[in-house]
Amino acid sequence: MAVGNPSKALSPYICSSCSRSLKLRSRKFATAASPDIYDVVCVGGGPAGLSLLTALRSSKATSHLSLALVESQDLDRAQKWHLPPDQYSNRASSLTPSSQSFLSQIGAWSHIDTSRVQPYQHMRVWDGLSSTSRISFDSPAPEPAIAHMTENQNIIRALLARLDSLEPISLLDKTSITDIHLGPPPSSPAPEHASLNLSSYPHVTLSSKHTIAARLLVGADGLNSPVRTFAGIQTRGWDYDRHGVVATLKLSSESSHNPENPRGVTAYQRFLPTGPIALLALPGPYASLVWTTTPTQAARLKSLNIEDFIATVNAAFRLSVVDLDYMFTLSSGQLSELQWRESVSPNTSAEANGDIPAYVTSVQESSIASFPLRLRHASSYTTHRTALIGDAAHTIHPLAGQGLNMGLADSKSLASAVEYAITHGADTGSEMNCLDKYNIDMWMRNNRLLGAVDKLHWLYSVKSGPVVPFRGVGLRAVDALGDLGLKRWFMRQAGGL
Amino acid sequence: MAYASASRRLLNLPPSQRVTFFTSTRGFSVLNRPPPNYEGHVPLNVFERGALAAGSAVMSLLNPRRGDLIAALGETTATPYFIYRLRDAMLCNPTGRRILRDRPRITSKSMSVEKLRALPENTVGQAYMDWLDREGVSPDTRDSVKYIDNEECAYVMQRYRESHDFYHALTGLPVFVEGEVALKAFEFANTLLPMTGLSLFAVTRMKPAERSRFWHTYLPWAIGNGLKSKEVINVYWEEELERDVADLRAELGLERPPDLRDTRKTLREQRKTAKEKSEKMSGLMADSP
């Protein structure tokens, strides 16, 4: 239901009699040219945008706000998204406990299809250049899991289902933005029946030729955010010259991440000099692959036949970097190379300890894809009446699996800033009274995380020299000092435990 | 309390993680020597390895003909790092990988004399045969590797040792100390095996003329060629026998050093004629009244 009436949108701030008169006036003077005014217009219906709207709707203080969502994709399809239990989307994320608790707090977690969620209790991370440098994380006793793996589509569907169960918002899907501009300056001298002064309100012109005005415009519209461009916010960062190769894999049945395994489920990550390769458990014998590598190696991986692709993935967790580099020079025959190297130097003990993942046996059809990796950070998340959340505000290297979690944390923080402003009678679009709180809350935190992950990337892309043994000693030291709470501190930083 | 438990954890680490720079040598006492990793393998602990290296180094310097001691020195100093580096150099190269897969051995059986003699002039096989004839040695004079723990690295050492004669043939350097030291210098620059570098101490045993020849001619040749040529360990000699030797040298980026035997022969003749001359002169002087 579109809330097209300014009086309704303004009702929380204006006494009922004024509001009534406003209603009369607007009824009298409303023309086709005057835009619909919303309290919050969110551009982008990804996890960040949807969770923000859900959080606003499900909080008592903000549930009455008029909300609009502009999304270019068909949200109906996202809502009806369904895959059989033996198929998984290749875009999956690891939800940290704090993200999970946020989703339960806004009532979305109960709509998640839990049969497609895989909690994991252990993590094994090691250095590709010195196999003895490894670190293991285990979920501390009161926590049932380090994190939960699930498909992004599952999260989106749950958020949409939760939104559906609440007071409706204006869903403007299959709609793109043609322009964002500020409202017209107030006509002066103000006539007696002047309309609202909307000169500071962002006006969004949609592909349907319709224009909507926003008290607060939220950009959750990704890397090339039009909202960010409108707000004139600079971003800084660089491209990594790396691609992330993703795929949905099936592991052998004696899989160590089998949910029935009493030892629990393990996530694996090996830092190769070209970038980390991670295998994250999905339910059953399935797993999600995220392999960060150079564009040439990524292209090679995608060009291999399935058998050799599987062999290369298995090799990436088992063989030396020298062998792996050689395998990338071949256009086929990786399987025979793997078999030969495994017969010369078997990994039997690592296999038995669960230090390396079980063998990949098959790849889900057409699930192999790749995307370029970047680091971007907006210089600020807010200007007057605009706020950026999620990828529009920051893009992170996937090695710590933090991208989606950071977006959800943004939503949580922005929703609470809006809630605070509403309960204190402040303008939600005002930087000083509302948005600064969000910017202060999240910018530095995200900047630290972006920086830390970036440094890890550079640290582990060093191939030789004194850095290699030092980082090995460092990793082992952190592992050995786990009892002192250092590891728990790292996990708290990464997972918000 | 927490610190105590942390230090206990450090000490409880498996030995393989505690001794990080000697990943190949697990600590053990002589009373419970682990089983061999391959046929003929003799597992040594760090102290035994060190003692054997020092002993064989001293003794082989005193007696350079002791090939067994030089072999022991080569094996005990190849770990850590060096033999792994050489193995990785082979793993990086398609031919090197094929050698590691096939693991060919150079013996008088695989290198049959009849077959080699039948090869045309200027082939690698013929050069090898000529060299064997000239030096009076046979391919079977090589010991088996026994002190290297990693089975694949043991093969790499074996391969280096068996290919050594081909390096002689390729460069034309003879087996006596002067030629051997020049070739070892080349091998050190090319393979980085510490034994080949340590062998250069044999320079101290050379005559002044030989020594100056080494410093001024053969060492510069060895370092220059060893560094700029491709890794000679990656030559599949069994497949190159029929190849033109100059062609192979060009492919490896290797120049032939001045022929040491010829040089020595001419110098010897020069010396002889000079001596004869001076004798004649002194005879003439004596004869004259």
From TrEMBL, chain A:
EC number: 1.14.15.45, 1.14.15.46
Keyword terms, alphabetized: FAD, Flavoprotein, Membrane, Mitochondrion, Mitochondrion inner membrane, Monooxygenase, Oxidoreductase, Ubiquinone biosynthesis
Cellular location(s): Mitochondrion inner membrane
Keyword Flavoprotein: yes
TM region positions: none
Domain FAD-binding: 38-426
Pathway(s) the chain acts in: Cofactor biosynthesis; ubiquinone biosynthesis
Topological category with respect to the lipid bilayer: Peripheral membrane protein
Pfam families named in the record: FAD_binding_3
Cofactors, names only: FAD
NCBIfam families hit by this protein: Ubi-OHases
Protein name in the entry: Ubiquinone biosynthesis monooxygenase COQ6, mitochondrial
UniProtKB/TrEMBL annotation, chain B:
Catalytic reaction(s) noted: a 4-hydroxy-3-methoxy-5-(all-trans-polyprenyl)benzoate + H(+) = a 2-methoxy-6-(all-trans-polyprenyl)phenol + CO2
Positions of the UniProt region annotated as Disordered: 257-289
InterPro entries named among the record's database cross-references: Coq4, Coq4_euk
Membrane topology qualifier: Peripheral membrane protein
Pathway recorded for this protein: Cofactor biosynthesis; ubiquinone biosynthesis
Location within or outside the cell: Mitochondrion inner membrane
Transmembrane segments annotated in the record for this chain: none
Residues annotated to bind Zn(2+): H164, D165, H168, E180
Endoplasmic reticulum keyword on record: no
Required cofactor(s): Zn(2+)
PANTHER family named among the record's database cross-references: UBIQUINONE BIOSYNTHESIS PROTEIN, UBIQUINONE BIOSYNTHESIS PROTEIN COQ4 HOMOLOG, MITOCHONDRIAL
Subunit field text: Component of a multi-subunit COQ enzyme complex, composed of at least COQ3, COQ4, COQ5, COQ6, COQ7 and COQ9.
The protein's name: 4-hydroxy-3-methoxy-5-polyprenylbenzoate decarboxylase
Species this chain originates from: Lepraria finkii
Gene coding for it: COQ4
